[in-house]
């Protein structure tokens, strides 16, 4: 195999993977490779994988099969959480050239060079956060950018692979993050979303995430700050207060609860109760009454009874989320819940529960969207719409807003919301907001 000239990075899974995918692309570009939009034409395809549910993992193997179809033989690098979880098993199961874990991808150029000599190469080491110092500087980004501030998880929810694929909780240093945020703004970002598997567990000495948010608030040219994903146990009063005090911090909080029954939460090892979770939301709403709340749910966790599932529905009725993600429980090898085979819920039961939950969540999402009709807000333009002159941006509450405007991508437009659907809003541009 010869050295690749063109590359294509395909990311699956969470936003942290999207961030890692961007960093790997920058790394390849710094090596002199050219980006290719077409995975079927690139010499090197990096599959940046997700292991969170079984379906996510199976996608990888079918994608490798597709890339190898018609006798094409690109170099294939498997990165991300499947790489970490399955390691050499991937090389045994499929024809791939490189396997690189999420904490080792700064070594990708060397691994690619080794693979070009013939044998498959693998690196799934987990040095604490070494990669960030070894990556090239940020150059060009869109109006919205991700910034990973924290990685890993110490919570060990019994269903979840993340503590195994991403390792222990580690925070990047305050100064390096402020520098990277400034570089992102210089490169075109107007909104930064701080990322971490437990982003609100971020700390540097006695500084918590709210201190980092305050520092970013002072960066000229940055208009909006968001963060995700938070864990209820790390939701400090300081961070809650930031939603009242920091102007650029957007009124949106993704705070997964997973289930509404205390027995299930305990079996999940969630270390918060239904009540303690609801009390946090009360404090958040007191600090920022218009905040949009978001969450994640798992239905059909081993042993979940009908009555326990009803408690999830009643929690959802109580909170009235602006948007949510919900999943059927998927047993993951190596996790404690995957051992509870005697208590597995039949798929038909889980599917029916998921349908009922999603019907409720969708109704609330529509109601939340409808409640914004008549309001005025800033919309950050992110991309062109389908029709000429139509642009699509985001409201402060993370809703997609479609509008006719001559404003360009990256501009902030003052908009009146005039219509609402389940997944987006319609707006009318007022005057352009002052930059
Ligand atoms: N760190 C975040 C998100 C982790 S993964 C948190 O603590 O909430 C994103 C979501 O995937 C989780 O919130 C959970 O709802 C879902 N998830 C994780 N493992 C799962 C599994 N084995 N089966 C189904 N859904 C799962
Ligand atoms: Fe997974 Fe739980 Fe950690 Fe979230 S907090 S990443 S669900 S173990
Ligand atoms: Fe998936 Fe890994 Fe993210 S398992 S959700 S890519 S942390």
TrEMBL record:
Root EC class: transferase
Residues covered by the Radical SAM core domain: 139-367
Enzyme Commission number, as recorded: 2.8.4.3
PROSITE patterns documented for this protein: MTTASE_N, MTTASE_RADICAL, RADICAL_SAM, TRAM
CDD domains: Radical_SAM
Superkingdom of origin: Bacteria
Pfam families found in the cross-reference section: Radical_SAM, TRAM, UPF0004
Domain TRAM: 370-431
Binding site for [4Fe-4S] cluster 2: 153, 157, 160
Assigned keywords, A-Z: 4Fe-4S, Cytoplasm, Iron, Iron-sulfur, Metal-binding, S-adenosyl-L-methionine, Transferase, tRNA processing
GO cellular component: cytosol
InterPro entries (alphabetical): Elp3/MiaA/NifB-like_rSAM, Methylthiotransferase, Methylthiotransferase_CS, Methylthiotransferase_N, Methylthiotransferase_N_sf, MiaB_methiolase, rSAM, rSAM_horseshoe
Cofactor, how bound (note): Binds 2 [4Fe-4S] clusters. One cluster is coordinated with 3 cysteines and an exchangeable S-adenosyl-L-methionine.
Compartment annotation: Cytoplasm
Entry coiled-coil feature ranges: none
Protein purpose: Catalyzes the methylthiolation of N6-(dimethylallyl)adenosine (i(6)A), leading to the formation of 2-methylthio-N6-(dimethylallyl)adenosine (ms(2)i(6)A) at position 37 in tRNAs that read codons beginning with uridine.
UniProt xrefs under HAMAP family: tRNA_metthiotr_MiaB (MF_01864)
Entries under PANTHER family matching the protein: CDK5 REGULATORY SUBUNIT-ASSOCIATED PROTEIN 1, MITOCHONDRIAL TRNA METHYLTHIOTRANSFERASE CDK5RAP1
Protein name in UniProt: tRNA-2-methylthio-N(6)-dimethylallyladenosine synthase
Originating organism: Stakelama tenebrarum
Gene: miaB
């Amino acid at each position: 195999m010869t050295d690749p000239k063109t590359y294509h990075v395909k990311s699956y899974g969470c936003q942290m993977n999207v961030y890692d995918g961007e960093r790997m692309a920058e790394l390849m570009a710094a090596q002199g490779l050219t980006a290719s939009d077409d995975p079927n034409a690139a010499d090197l395809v990096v599959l940046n994988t997700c292991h969170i549910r079984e379906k996510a993992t199976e996608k990888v193997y079918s994608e490798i099969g597709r890339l190898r179809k018609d006798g094409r033989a690109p170099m294939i690098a498997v990165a991300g959480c499947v790489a970490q979880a399955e390691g050499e098993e991937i090389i045994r199961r499929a024809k791939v050239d490189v396997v690189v874990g999420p904490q080792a991808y700064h070594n990708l150029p060397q691994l690619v060079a080794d693979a070009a000599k013939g044998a498959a190469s693998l690196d799934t080491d987990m040095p604490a956060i070494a990669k960030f110092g070894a990556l090239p500087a940020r150059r060009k980004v869109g109006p919205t950018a991700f910034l990973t501030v924290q990685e890993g998880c110490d919570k060990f929810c019994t269903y979840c692979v993340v503590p195994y694929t991403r390792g222990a909780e580690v925070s990047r240093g305050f100064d390096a993050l402020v520098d990277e945020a400034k570089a992102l703004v210089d490169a075109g970002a107007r909104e930064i979303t701080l990322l971490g598997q437990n982003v609100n567990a971020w700390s540097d000495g006695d500084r918590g995430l709210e201190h980092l948010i305050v520092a970013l608030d002072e960066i000229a040219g940055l208009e909006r700050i968001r963060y995700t994903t938070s864990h209820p146990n790390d939701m400090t009063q300081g961070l809650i207060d930031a939603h009242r005090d920091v102007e650029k911090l957007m009124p949106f909080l993704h705070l997964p609860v997973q289930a509404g029954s205390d027995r299930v939460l305990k079996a999940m090892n969630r270390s918060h109760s239904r009540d303690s979770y609801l009390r946090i939301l009360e404090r958040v709403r007191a600090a920022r009454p218009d905040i949009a709340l978001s969450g994640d749910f798992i239905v059909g966790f081993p042993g979940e009874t009908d009555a326990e599932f009803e408690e999830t529905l009643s929690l959802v009725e109580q909170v009235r989320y602006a948007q949510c993600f919900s999943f059927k429980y998927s047993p993951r090898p190596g996790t404690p819940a995957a051992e509870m085979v005697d208590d597995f819920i039949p798929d038909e039961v889980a599917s029916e529960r998921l349908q009922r939950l999603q019907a409720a969540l969708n109704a609330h999402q529509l109601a939340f969207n409808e409640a914004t009709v008549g309001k005025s807000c800033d919309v950050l333009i992110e991309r062109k719409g389908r029709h000429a002159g139509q642009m699509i941006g985001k409201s402060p509450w993370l809703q997609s807003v479609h509008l006719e405007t001559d404003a360009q991508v990256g501009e902030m437009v003052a908009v009146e919301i005039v219509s609402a659907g389940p997944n987006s809003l319609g707006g009318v541009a007022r005057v352009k907001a002052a930059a």
